[in-house]
Amino acid sequence: MANNKGTNDYIEHILPTSNEEEMKRMMKELDREQSYREHKCWRQYITVFISVIFVLFQLYATLSGAITAQVLRATHLAFVQLLAFLLFPPTKHSPRNTLPWYDIVLGLIGAACWLYIVVNFDSLVRRSGNNTPLDVAIGIVGILVLFESCRRIVGLPIMIIAGSFIVFAFAGKYLPGFLHHRGYSLQRVVCHLFYNTEGIMGTPIGACSTFIFLFILFGALLEKTGIGHFFIDVCNAVAGGASGGPAKVAVLSSALLGTVSGSSVSNTVGSGSFTIPMMKKLGYKGEFAGAVEAAASTGGQLMPPIMGAAAFLMAESLGLPYITIVKAAIVPAILYFTGIFITVHLEAKKLGLKGLPKEQLPRFMPLLLRKGYMILPLVVIIYFLCAGKTAVFAALMGIIACVLVGFGVSVSDLAHGRKPSFGGKDIVEIMCTAARKIISVAIACGMAGIIIGIVTLTGLGLRLGNGLVMLAHGKLLLTLVFTMIASIILGMGAPTTANYLITSTITAGAIISLGIEPLAAHMFAFYFGIIADVTPPVALAAIAGAAIAKAKPMKTALNATKLAIGAFIIPYMFVYNSKMLMINASALSVVMIIVTAILGMFGISVALEGYGFNNTGFFYNSGKRKTTIIAFDAAERILFAVAGLLCVIPEAKTDIIGVSLLAILIAYQLILKKIHSTKAIA
Q1: Alpha helix segments (H runs only) across 352-475
Q2: Residue 68: what pLDDT?
Q3: Residue that finishes a domain, picked among 173, 206, 239
């Protein structure tokens, strides 16, 4: 299954062989999670052994159910801390072919602190609230080591925020206004954070040590099957021949690849190495090609059935089945990718770009018959989620389906005299990948646990929520805008998981207090945390796309923001109309929302592109002064934007006005197009 020869033969006609080493280098530079050591000799055997034991322990804990929650979470963190220091160097520029003695010591100390809970669990429970000086000392060391691993792997922003919250717990009696509280002792703070299930070992780590880990293992198995190449092939068969085909392939394939990859940067580099050169060869500018891939890849985390880790944490935080989160995400995700797809189509029409020649594209049905088995694990997961099974059970069934498909293909390989493409070595490699990928998620969850722990200890969440509502003068729109700004700023330096946990803890309560559905409030924070990956000035996914396209990073980021405009509008839509999230919604109301929203996205896309069925302001492009042309072009764009926004606003009156205005504008463009065609013939 790892062998993909023959699946992308058509690509050889249009782009050179991708440089795998260059892709790895790029991901290591842009994505902290990818900047890990690749050990050799005895160091490799040690890390592989620990990783395999880690995965086997997680599977045993899940299947047996014999391990108590606190022991499972503490053991999970012990493995994570040990692997964090064995795999990730102290700085970005540290050598990656050595393992300093101090990293071994730090890893062992970090693991020992959490194993102290495992070994002394019964006695710690008995003396709860009366911890010894040794308990406090171990808690302090464990928290400090967690901070260091966060600095290395997740980044400084969340570390600084968590540190500020701890300072707040000590200094409350010196603070003014709504931040004032009586303050807490060192022992109380440390023991609450380290030993309590309301601190580091709270809900986020609980989710991370159960179904998030299983879905990451499932994703690692899917990646090994070569499903990414299959998705690109399918999308090329479906859309490669259309106007601007490669760009549409980028949108579709990135939506599908988001099911496998939880990282915007990895998704951008993985699929972008194929789609971006194709787009450039067809005629798209580098900045636009990189932006298309970045915007689509970032949205991959929004795409059901398997979204980013934050979606699982949302289900846990709200106490909802994961399938409820999936259902709620379907319509917003469709609208997001439809918005990008429309903009890409309009750009292709404006530039007169054609699709790829049919002889260079795979045929859909033969491809599906030959490689369709690859989607079986996804079908299995969707089936069990829809059947009402837990996310844990669905993930386990998906993992089993992946393994069975893999070995089934290997049997077929042997029967045809080929080398097996899936075996024991691949299983070990998958385990190592899963163990490595869970590290950043677990550390982010642990740091978020510190923030949540201080919030529960001091009541800060209610204080900040009330403060935010007061700042917004009780206005919902202003509260949403402040939440959006906070989420985007946090998302520039923190991964989606940590961003969602922080913003949902602090701001979701404020939105809910204004009468909004809890799911809509949490989804709002989730969306803006993700879209930060294409929002300047950081915009890591856009920078990755720019690097592949050899384009200007900031211009690529601005283009990506324009393409992802739907992500800045859709969250406001579902906050004001929760039916979009399938909450108390009839089928007819959902269909009406989708239709009017798509029309709205079309209007907004025309306004941004300056092209619909014809260039905006076209009638004045002949025989008039340049300033007049610009004025009429701007006026027409503004009218399209207004019509689009009116369609997007979830109210019957605005929908009627918006659709009517849009119909008039489209008719106007079609008439001008006909006039232009007549003149051209004459």
Answers
A1: 364-371, 376-386, 391-415, 424-458, 460-471
A2: 92
A3: 206
Under DSSP, is residue 3 helix (H, G, I), strand (E, B) or coil? coil
- Burial code (b: 16+ CB inside 10 Å, e: under 16) for 637-646 equals bebbbbbbbb
Query: Is the residue at 165 inside a domain?
Result: yes
Whether 111 maps to a domain, the answer reads yes
Sort residue 354 into left (φ over 0), alpha (ψ -120 to 50) or beta. Answer: beta
- Whole-number pLDDT of residue 93: 79
Report the distance separating Cα 394 and Cα 339, nearest Å. Answer: 31
User: Is residue 489, in this structure, part of any structural domain at all?
Assistant: no
**DSSP for 281-331, written as a single string:** HHT--HHHHHHHHHHHHHGGGG-SSS--HHHHHHHHHHT--HHHHHHHHHH
CA gap 396, 381 in Å, rounded: 9
Using alpha carbons only, how large is the chain's radius of gyration in Å?
26
Cβ pair 227, 6 in contact under 8 A? no
Token output for 635: 């006026």
Predicted structure pTM score = 0.82
Instruction: Say whether pLDDT at 9 is over 70.
Output: no
> pLDDT value at position 237?
87
Beta bridge partners of 615: 611
pLDDT in tens, 58-70: 999 988 888 999 9
Residue range(s) defining the domain that contains residue 666: 595-681
pLDDT of residue 7: 36
pLDDT (mean) for 279-304: 85
Q: Give 445's Cβ-side CA count (13 Å radius).
A: 33
* Confidence class for position 56, pLDDT limits 50, 70, 90: very high
Residue 544 falls inside a structural domain: no
Average pLDDT score over residue span 351-357: 79
Domain boundary pick from 206, 240, 267: 206
3-class SS of residue 615: strand
Counting every residue, how long is the chain? 682
In this model, does residue 482 exceed pLDDT 70? yes
Please give the tally of structural domains in the chain: 2
> Please, are residues 454 and 505 in contact by the beta-carbon 8 Å criterion?
no
